[in-house]
Amino acid sequence: MNEELSEAERLAMLRRFEPVVRYTRGERFFPIEVGPYINACSLWVQTPNQVPIRLVSQGELTVDRLIESRSHGVGAVYYLKFIEPLDLIELARYSFNEAWKSITQPGSKDVFRSGLGRLARVGYGSRLVDALFSVSLLVRGRVPGDTAAAAALAYQRMRSAGARSSYYGRVVRQDGWVALQYWYFYPFNNWRTGFFGANDHEGDWEMACIYCTEDQAVDDPQPAERRLAPCWVAFASHEFSGDDLRRRWDDPELVKVGEHPVIFAGAGSHASYFTAGEYLAELELPFLTPLVRLVDRLQDRWVTTLRQAGAQTNKPAFNVFRIPFVDYARGDGLSIGPGQDEPWQACLLDEQTAWAICYRGLWGLYAQDPIAGENAPAGPVYNRDGSVRRRWYDPLGWAGLDKVPPPDLELHLLSRQREEARANCSSLKRQVAQKSERLHRLGIEAAAIEGRPHLAKTYNEIVGQIDALSKELAGIRQKLTVEQAKLEAFDWHEERLRRGELPSPRAHLHRAHAPSPELDLRLGGLAEAFSAISIGSLMIGIVLLIMFARQYLLIGLAAMVGFILFVEAGFRRQLARLINSLSVGLAIISSLVLLFEFFWQVVVVSVLALGVFLIWENLRELRS
Amino acid sequence: MSWLLLWIGYWACTEMGDKVSQSKEPVPRRPRSVTILAVLQALQGLGLLALGIYRGYLLTWLGGAELLISRVTPYVVVDWLTGWVVWITLGIFTLILALAIFRMQRLAWLIAISLQGLGLLVGLVNYIQARPNYAGMIYGIVLVFYLNQQEVRSAFREA
Lengths: 624, 159
Description:
The complex is a heterodimer of chains A (about 625) and B (about 160). Chain A has about 625 residues and is α+β, with helices and mostly antiparallel strands. Chain A folds into three domains: about 5-105 and about 115-285 and about 320-400, no CATH class; about 410-500; about 525-610, no CATH class. Chain A is built from 17 helices and 16 strands. Chain A is globular. The radius of gyration of chain B is 18 Å and the shape is elongated. Chain B has seven helices and no strands. Chain B is an all-alpha fold. In chain B, about 30% of the residues are buried. The two termini of chain B are about 35 Å apart. Chain B has one domain (about 30-155). At the A-B interface, helix 16 of A face helix 5, helix 6 and helix 7 of B.
């Protein structure tokens, strides 16, 4: 694919637009080369219903040994293991150093301050589901608690030994575009233990892609990288796919330093964002999916069909059965890239890169987590199941760009579409003329033989033919109208293209990710503390009620829930909304009670009302 | 109690507590739905008042006859008495609230929805205790959904 581009040319292309990555204070892991990581790992295989087998010990693993051909049968999962758990003394020393640093250097880029946490941003139901999720970690496979600390120490050792901030760049030509892919390898994702996120896992691959057009004039004296013009940028992110992943180069949301787009990396998760901020990411558990869908549908009906409270606002952002997590992408920590705190080391990645192509296993611990959040990812080429990633074999389709032609081809393609539409029009017009004449002839024939008993059968056949032909002709005329309308649209679009007018840079977005807005909380610290303890206290309260005052269980539960609801609504300045929601809930329950008690009366009254309405409508018609 | 009602009446008839006028924004024209809401609320107030007066009359009548022959327990009397006072007070309060709604005072919407919620809660409790008041429940349901109509909420800046 890149046979006409030398390594130096590809590197120059990648260098020209290499993104700047801005991290959040407290980030422990930054992208490095894979070599030192592989050397620090052991290689394992897990076969179904068997204990894991170590294939290569820590310190003995090299790239050559990693890519050796192996076969352990169907269902075998190969994985690297980066970290052996710390002993107690090492862990205590690490924890003490971290705590000491946060006290003595509160403004340091190494110290994370969570600020207003996720629990204060979401409702009670979500908090309850979140509590269940936390409890589920006890039974699900997960990365052990001290692994993040051990990984941080191992990472520091690799940095001390000379590992530099690096990315792996790949240049792909596809359908007239040049895609510059930047792959970042992080030794560890400590989103859960470091930043109150959803998961931890060893090894983490992230990717950003810049889509350029290329001036292909043969006699162009400029070097290859100077012939590129950037048009789109796409970042891999949680929950988003296709069109929503990319932004146009002139989109104001895309922050740039010169020609370098800026990525705001999520703390611990390393997910990429276009804007600095704190993002609410929602995790949907597979077994709660039906409930999630049901709540989504009910919310939609309430707002759009019944036009009830909240009808003027957008669809509610949160579903009670999704678990909320905050991804902190503040961009106030270390910044890596041209002219930043540290520069990048660029490494090439292509179809000849052995460790990427020949190793289909996981790049860290296989924790056997059924939700997969704690399992390490596979490499840049493969999914966890060993299939090839779409972003590798179809970089355009991955970001929904496969349907978008490069700008320099637009006029040519439009002209071809117009020619095709014109040809269609001519053909359809010919068909209309032929069918119309045939229809006229049948019509005159039918008129001539109508009313003659000895030709009655023939007459009926002709009438049938007329009906069929008439329908066919109507269909052709409709197609002709559409083709003519398309021609008009093509002309209009061509004019816009010639004038250099571009559609809105955000026209392709269905659901853009925006940072979570600042919360307007009364007594913020107290509200935060109350949010953190409310659900746990409720659970303890229920147990105490069952143990000591079972006869007051219902009323006690109602009192506790009511207290929590009103206090939190007070903190959030949402007492009016709460009272309204409760009133609406009571009204719905009362309606169901009435329907239960007076079902047949309701049916009779409804039929009577319908009858009166119909009479009224008909009388109005008579009067008019 | 009378002082409290007098104060609430003063609030309903003046601009006190009205954030719309405090912010010196132009007072919006009253939509027809708000007028209808005020009328519905006033009818509810009149209904409650009539019920209170009827109960008071019943109590007086019983006081003369039934109590003497001890067919009515003191508990029932207290129930009637509190019912009488509560109904009359609620009736007057609801009438004042109707006036506040008519004058589009912002707080009136919140008080009205709270009152209807409370009424529905009492209605459901009574239903569970086999003392249903279906007419009151229907009226409450209608008012809750009417209060949540977009036009009404916009008029009280609650949308």
